[in-house]
UniProtKB/TrEMBL annotation:
Taxon lineage: Bacteria, Pseudomonadati, Pseudomonadota, Alphaproteobacteria, Hyphomicrobiales
EC number: 1.14.14.5
Statement: the UniProt record of this protein carries the keyword Flavoprotein: yes
Organism: Rhizobium rhizoryzae
UniProt similarity note: Belongs to the SsuD family.
Protein name, per record: Alkanesulfonate monooxygenase
Length: 390
């Protein structure tokens, strides 16, 4: 098997801060109602996605609780749950993680996100400057991992103190559920290569992703560790390239320049995240230069922080772009699209066949006359009645 035919591990996103058909506009919005999130989880479980990412932050529904609410309605889906050190103690998070891993029968993945908005972090009682947040995270995960692996932890650290911490019930996955990490600063990469199993990047152009992959590999090798890679991207896939670009334009068609300027100014002052700075630099707040690399469109980043780029095109085009990322070393893709339910279907129905990802088998009835193809291509009702009468 050549490297470009390797399977892609494809996850989807649960929009716990809301969803909609247009970004930066107030119409056709959807609240993150738990029943709507459940619809998405049930759909993507059936469509062949391997997991879902649940983010964390003040604008999101809480990630662990939401994952626990969705898990019973799914069979195969893994839950990549964001964990932000400092929002609770490591011992408490170890209990949350081991319970959720048992509830999901070993389907928990954890995404370590230290957070990049000092004012938001202050609301959670975290007042550390950027690099020190990673020193704090290092101590936090020492206790967290010790507890999951052995049921015991003790640490008299600079940031974390835990005295005879105990965990009553172990997680199913041992020594712990897999740890993912998202962050682009030197301090973040240094921290992650000592702790995380998978390094995640937002959807930067392939050359920039390659540069980060090289940095992460070098840092991991120096510690004798092996890290795999994933990318977080939006998708706008349609039957033709033209239709996909039209859909991209439509997505930001109700977005005005004032809203863009406000959002960009806010990100510039409210965030100290290097990853966010790299994403903002791709488009510079300008809507006339949004294709920042072939088929990589930065329109979403005009008003959304974090993941701000989409792969746009026909199934063949988008699959070819994903293969380019794969050649750099990306094995995991965390996709999304607006609205997340409909776009989960589009990606699965249009793109998955190009990637060799199989959805759950569809029921087609007793004979070929009843197959979906016959029903939809042959006039439905009449065809069925004719068959029934024969
Ligand atoms: C795939 C991915 C997912 C992320 N999810 C979150 C999240 O849910 N909440 C959050 O506060 N930050 C999230 N982040 C952002 C970072 O984890 C972190 O908050 C910050 O941007 C890292 O800063 P740095 O790039 O300066 O190291 C995510 C980053 C990536 C790459």
């Amino acid at each position: 098997m050549s490297i470009t035919q390797k399977p892609i591990d494809f996850l989807w996103f649960i929009p716990t801060s809301g969803d909609g058909s247009y970004i930066g506009a107030s119409d056709l919005n959807r609240a993150p109602d738990n029943r709507y999130l459940r619809e998405i989880a049930v759909a993507v479980d059936r469509l062949g996605y391997s997991g879902v990412l649940l983010p964390t932050g003040v604008s999101c529904e809480e990630s662990f609780v939401t994952a626990a609410s969705l898990a019973p309605f799914t069979e195969r889906l893994k839950f990549l749950v964001a964990i932000r050190p400092g929002t609770a103690s490591p011992a408490y998070y170890a209990r949350l993680a081991s319970t959720l891993d048992r509830i999901t029968e070993g389907r928990l993945l954890l995404n370590i996100v230290v957070g990049g908005a000092p004012a938001e972090l202050a609301g959670d009682g975290i007042f550390l400057p950027h690099d020190e947040r990673y020193d704090h995270a290092e101590e936090f995960f020492q206790v967290f991992e010790d507890l999951l692996a052995t049921g015991k932890a003790d640490l008299d650290g600079k940031h974390i103190k835990a005295k005879e911490a105990r965990l009553g019930f172990p997680s199913i996955q041992q020594p712990r559920p897999p740890l993912y990490f998202g962050g682009s600063s030197d301090a973040g990469i240094e921290f992650s290569t000592g702790r995380a199993d998978k390094y995640l990047t937002w959807g930067e152009p392939p050359e920039q992703v390659a540069e980060k992959v090289a940095r992460v590999r070098k840092s991991a090798a120096a510690k004798g560790r092996d890290v795999s890679f994933g990318i977080r991207l939006h998708f706008i896939v349609r039957e033709t390239d033209e239709e996909a670009w039209e859909a991209a334009d439509r997505l930001i068609s109700k977005l005005d320049d004032e809203t863009i300027a406000k959002a960009q100014a806010h990100f510039a002052t409210a965030s100290d995240s290097v990853g966010q700075q790299r994403m903002a630099a791709l488009h510079g707040g300008r809507r006339d230069k949004l294709e920042v690399s072939p088929n990589l469109w930065a329109g979403i980043g005009l008003v959304r922080s974090g993941a701000g780029t989409a792969l746009v095109g026909s199934p063949k085009t988008v699959a070819a772009r994903l293969r380019e990322y794969q050649e750099i070393g990306i094995e995991t893709v965390i996709g999304s699209g607006y609205p997340h339910l409909e776009e989960a279907y589009r990606v699965a129905e249009l793109l998955f066949p190009e990637l060799g990802i199989t959805t759950l088998p569809q029921r087609t009835g007793f004979g070929s006359e009843f197959s979906q193809r016959t029903v939809f291509s042959g006039g439905g009702h009449q065809t069925l009645r004719a068959v029934a009468a024969s």
